[in-house]
Specification:
Elements: H1 19-34, H2 40-45, E1 51-58, E2 62-63, H3 67-77, E3 82-85, E4 92-93, E5 98-105, H4 106-136, E6 143-145, H5 155-164, E7 178-180, H6 182-188, H7 191-201, E8 208-212, H8 215-223, E9 228-232, H9 236-246, E10 251-255, H10 263-267, E11 273-275, H11 278-281, E12 288-291
Parallel strand pairs: 6-11, 7-8, 8-9, 9-10, 10-11
Antiparallel strand pairs: 1-5, 1-12, 2-4, 3-5
Helix pairs in contact: 1-3, 1-4, 3-4, 4-5, 6-7, 8-9
Length: 292
């Protein structure tokens, strides 16, 4: 196999996020749902001491992500709950795949159900969408990465789900890398002054990326020795020429309307990365159910 290609990515186990990061998010989501009076439906119908057993099952093909958040939701409502995971994040799912068996108070299970499923279905959807692109370009050296186009409050867990799906993460916020976009260039008066000001202001460990729309802009960015070039909304012929001009002097990143259908052609141009915003802001949920 050529060193410029890679086999289909194994969706290996990704290090779980610390509970300290997850619990405030799950707790706030439960509090939002409980409102001012708690689960008035369940509390009216289900006896306080009733016990129940329920099972999480997939209803469609996909990739599992978010199991720790689901577990936390049940444990916050019932500290004595028994959560028996049958699969781990990163597992490939098929309709009927049993994900977990959960035993505890019926009230706690029913009250936590929607919060647990909201996290699990959404993050599994993000992981599944990512895996669809990773699978589509498995015979190339290109990597899939997300963007900052995340849902408010969910950035850390959405980016975690991207990793579970076999992708990589772009910057987490405005403070961990410089990304000079078209509006920065316009206000600064050009690529050169924008890069010069950024380079003078940030530390030596901070990478500088410049978004370019044309090959002329690319040449300007390369002459300044930037670390990464974001090749925005270029057709495949232009991307291929851009990669030729870069010739390894910077990391190349393609973006703009990339889908599982168009991804192979984009990756074949030789770009190092493809940045895809819809993986986090518009990924469809994966259908997972909780059945008694």
């Amino acid at each position: 196999m050529s060193t410029n290609t890679r086999p289909q990515a194994d969706l290996r186990a990704v290090a779980s996020l610390p509970p300290l990061m997850l619990e405030p998010l799950v707790r706030a989501t439960l509090q939002e749902d409980l409102g001012r009076a708690g689960d008035i439906t369940t509390d009216a119908i289900v006896p306080a001491g009733a016990q129940a057993e329920v099972r999480l099952r997939a209803r469609q093909d996909g990739v599992l992500a978010g199991l720790d958040l689901a577990r936390l939701a049940f444990r916050l409502m019932d500290p004595a709950v028994a959560f028996e995971a049958k699969l781990a994040d990163g597992a490939r799912l098929a309709p009927g795949s049993e994900i977990a068996i959960i035993r505890g108070t019926a009230r706690g299970l029913l009250t936590a159900e929607r919060t647990a499923l909201n996290f699990l279905c959404h993050l599994s959807g993000v992981a599944s969408a990512t895996a669809s692109i990773v699978d589509a370009i498995r015979d190339t050296r290109c990597r899939v990465t997300c963007t900052r186009k995340t849902m408010p409050g969910l950035r850390a867990v959405q980016k975690y789900a991207v990793r579970v799906g076999g992708g990589s993460n772009h910057r987490f916020g405005l403070d961990d890398a410089v990304l000079i976009k078209d509006n920065h260039v316009a206000i600064a008066g050009g690529i050169a002054p924008a890069v010069e000001r950024a380079r003078a202001a940030v530390g030596h460990l901070v990478k500088i990326e410049v978004e370019v729309d044309t090959l002329a802009q690319l040449d300007d960015a390369l002459a300044l020795g930037v670390d990464v070039v974001l090749l925005d909304n270029m057709d495949t012929d232009t991307l291929r020429e851009a990669v030729r001009r870069v010739d390894g002097r910077a990391v190349t990143e393609a973006s703009g309307r990339i889908t599982p259908e168009t991804a192979p052609a984009v990756a074949a141009t030789g770009v190092d990365l493809m940045a895809i915003g819809w993986l986090t802001h518009s990924a469809r949920v994966l259908d997972i159910g909780l059945d008694a």
